[in-house]
Amino acid sequence: MHNGRTFADRRRFLVAAPTGAAALFLLAAVLPGSPGQQRWESWVGLLVAAANVVLGLVARPRWNWVPPFAAASLATALALALAGATSGSDADMYLVWFPPLCAYVALVTTPAAILVIAMITGALVAGVAAGADPTQTAGPVSAALSTVVAGAVVKGLFRAGLLQSHADPLTHLANRAGTLERGESAVAEIQAEGREAILVLVDINRFHEINDALGHAGGDRLLQIIARTLSGLRPIPAFVGRAGGDEFALVFRGMPVPPTVATAASRPGAPLPVPTAAETKRRRVLGRRVLRQIQGPFQVCGVDVEVDASVGIAVAPRDSTTMSGLLTCADSALLRAKRVGESVGLWDPGITGVRPEEIALYAQLRTAITRGELLLFYQPLQSACSGGIVGAEALLRWHHPTRGLLAPGVFLPVAERSPLIADLTRWVLDEALRQCAAWADEGLHLPVSVNLSARMLVLDDLPQVVAGSLAAHGLASDVLTLEITESALVTQPARAATMLSELRTQGVALSLDDFGTGYSSMEILKTLPFDEVKIDRGFVADARGSLPDAAIVRSVLDLGHRLGLRVVGEGIEDERTLAMMIDLGCDLLQGEAISVPLPAAEMSELLRSRAAEVRPSAPHATLPTSERATECAGGLPDARLSDGGGAPGAGVAEGGVAEGGVADGGVAEGGVADGGVADGGMVEGGVAGGEAAGGAGQAEAGRSGSPPPGEAGTAPGGRGQQQGVPARSGRRIGGRPMSSG
To answer: Where are the transmembrane segments (predicted)?
Structure first.
């Protein structure tokens, strides 16, 4: 964080410009042939101007006395230099000052700059008038003043157009672009005064519900009322703008910057002192005061509406010295406050994991898409039955220009705290489908999975974005699976449910990622139209040595299958875990034991090499002793695989699962007993009444397997395979499609 010296300070630079112009005027007065060369007053004025230029170069940012001192001394020097001039001889010299003055008026109108211009111009007029013939000076003075007025008019028209483009037509506040520009000026001006600039980011909670209840006209009316209320807050904010749909940004003048903070902020990378308890209390009080004043109730469309809002607070120069940096920090604080159920959030690197250097990383990430620095790796999903690759998850990587290849854990947390995550997700979706289409052109038909963030689930145009990307690449919707974490569904479950249902109607498969890590897993599975659950990698990794984790994995598998869902085990890092997950009946497998994430070209090579292969039986899996005893007692699979890929202890027939393969409420003949799928309940394309699907050689009443090695058959009603690469069958149980793998 760098405040800079005089010429890095915008305000002081605007003062220094006319100072330099005045010095040039005095220099012209003493050049050879000039009428002022022989007068000592001209030389004194030139020396004073030169001294002021040097003062401007060495002045510190907090020397607020420099602008008025420069204006006063220069005005005195100019008046002295011109007062002793011969009558009429220096009249034309008056015009030398006005060209730079005219350009300056067209650029700036800050109070300090106006003070300097007014004092210098007044001195020129007084000096020339004192020693000149009015009949000779009237013409030049009138022409010069007319030029300045014309410059001011141009400046006014330009500012009017700029303000209109940076204004929000609904609230008449600054829009997002105006918030960044005008907010930046407010933050810089407050810091130049040696004070803290406090950014308060206000977000209206559940605004979409107000929109739904009162209509868009009612929602717009409420935003107008809130904008007017925020503009009249006490204390009066230095700036108010609309940062987004239902977000407002306010900048307040704070206390003088503590010397320790000012010193640390001026040294890039230097650690900042921890805020004191008093500082933290003052900021929380400010946040609560803002919330109280916008609480309402407000009369909207004949209804009294009380506003529930949250705020995030960031402070310059402690957190950042720029408006964009403060917005990022305040947004992080706001999101954290909502997560923990608080109304006021203060930004702190310790609570969000954000470090000052990540602010720069965020700025670089914004341009990474246009620069072509992002790329996708693909991690295969393997069928537990056939060993074939039946899908791939698209994983984002960033080829940073100076730091090399970055894993998503380095930069995605930064993006997820801002609207930038939506742009990244759109890019990943489009790139994954583009690659999927390219593979299809090569005869490699491989579905892809793409992760969705919580922010994407509340975008009204998400279904249109997905449908448009599929259509752009000429792909059917069943090639795409969207993965959503439990945590992404917790913040706005009703809105997420509506969005997911619309996506499911389009034919896109939905996967619940990291299952078991949230607090509402059962409710989510019951109410949302998922096709697949992915067991969290933490449970999978610990299942071989932990009885509770092994029990959780077994329970998720049993629950998923009873609900007609495909179950994926992710985070499989070694062969023994791989064997265990196959024995337990997991449908799809993912992890480094199968393959590390690969670039698209290497993934293509892997698909070709595996096209006609079926993975051989996995080695013996090791489970906790008591778990193995429970298996035998409860009819669960033995830890060995038969030649057909099933477990003999589970009654697996060669090539699949035997009749009545799961005891005690498991799979009965033709379906699932006790309220499960009735006899023949699987539609064509699966297994009904023991009929083999697509030559898969499946016995009655079991899970379907993939075609035998080398066979490119297609199960009726399901997706086909090409070159031995299995695809999901598309059969349905309970209205949800299931995978053949």
So the answer is: 12-31, 43-59, 66-85, 97-126, 138-158
**Do 77 and 223 reside in the same domain of the chain?**
no
Backbone dihedral region for residue 316 (phi beyond 0: left; psi -120 to 50: alpha; all else: beta) = beta
Q: Which residues pair with 310 in a beta bridge?
A: 203
Inter-residue contact 345 to 311 (CB < 8 Å):
yes
Query: How far is 102 from 568, CA to CA, in rounded Å?
Result: 71
* CA atoms of 29 and 81, how far apart (whole Å): 9
Last residue of a domain, one of 165, 187, 202: 165
- Which domain does 84 fall in, by range? 6-165
Same domain (yes/no): 33, 156: yes
Check whether residue 154 and residue 182 sit in a common domain.
no
* CA–CA distances in Å: residue 565 to residues 507, 528, 703: 16, 12, 12
Longest C-alpha distance within the chain, in Å? 120
Per DSSP (E only), the strands in 164-308 are 195-204, 239-242, 247-256, 298-300, 303-305
Cα 55 from Cα 733, distance rounded (Å): 82
pLDDT in tens, 33-57: 555 556 676 677 667 767 776 776 6
Rounded-to-5 percentages of helix, strand, coil across the chain: 50, 15, 40
Q: What is the pTM for the complete model shown?
A: 0.44
SS (H, E, C) 671-716: EECCCCCCCCCCCCCCCCCCCCCCCCCCCCCCCCCCCCCCCCCCCC
Domain of 252, CATH number, reads 3.30.70.270
Residue 360: inside a domain: no
Are residues 440 and 322 located together in one domain of the fold? no
Q: Quick check: helix, strand or coil at residue 692?
A: coil
Task: Give yes or no for residue 313 having a pLDDT over 90.
Answer: yes
Summarize pLDDT for 582-595 with one digit per residue, the tens. Answer: 988 899 999 999 99
